[in-house]
Amino acid sequence: MSARPIRIAPSILSADFARLGEEVAAIDAAGADYIHVDIMDGHFVPNISFGPAVMASVRQRTQKPFDVHLMIAPVDLYISAFAKSGADIITVHAEAGPHLHRTLQAIRAEGKKAGVALNPATPVSVLQHVLDDVDLILIMSVNPGFGGQSFIPETLIKLRQANALIGARPIDLEVDGGISAENARAVADAGANVFVAGSSILGGNDPTTYAPRIQAVRTAASTIQA
Ligand code: DX5
Ligand code: ZN
């Protein structure tokens, strides 16, 4: 269990896109800490979601921080657009370009928090020399591109490695993919403090279910391992 505060970040990839603004307002009202925004380009990942204009529109429906997960390559060209469209945290993939340090500096130059995401096959050691340049590490617990996939158990070992690498630094440890109330406790015990959840919160797109589902993940994540 981490000393960092638990944050629940519902992913709007599982929203009803025809009612995207209402869905964002609903997860805000239901107690989300962050709004997790998945941006996919059909190149870095085999799926396409939406771009900065759509994000800027829904940004007006909530004051909650926007946790923007960029699954795009190249990424540097688009950092400014997402910063201007209301991102608070901008997370890029370590695998998305050859100059990660430069990319992180570009995010911070926009006045935003800088995150790095790692695909399941990427070792945490790629972060060793950029730790002073990151505010958040995102460990993917599925291969990025789609909601509704199964959590990869090896992620627990990787979270522990990332947690050790972070040490006492003020860096959040986020996990994304297949997260639910059933595995949140094990994931928290491995050191994660920011929990992305798409289908386990927004699945079915019934706003009356969002608050109890967010609370269920929060309760599980906050339970201290016996
Ligand atoms: C996957 C995205 C996730 C996705 C998670 O590439 O990064 O944020 O929305 O969806 P679930 O929680 O359904 O696995
Ligand atoms: Zn994501």
Question: What characteristics describe this protein?
Answer:
single chain; 226 residues; alpha/beta; 18% strand; binds D-xylitol-5-phosphate; binds zinc ion
Top-tier CATH class: Alpha Beta
CATH superfamily: Aldolase class I
| Element order: H for helix, E for strand | EHEHEHEHEEHEHEHH
Number of domains: 1
Mean pLDDT: 97
The helix tally amounts to: 8
Which fold name is given in CATH as the topology? Answer: TIM Barrel
Shape estimate: globular
Tell me the major beta sheet.
8 strands, parallel
Taking all Cα atoms into account, the compactness measure Rg is 16 Å
Low-pLDDT stretches are: none
Going by CATH, the architecture would be: Alpha-Beta Barrel
Summing up helix and strand content along with how strands pair, one would put the structural category as alpha/beta
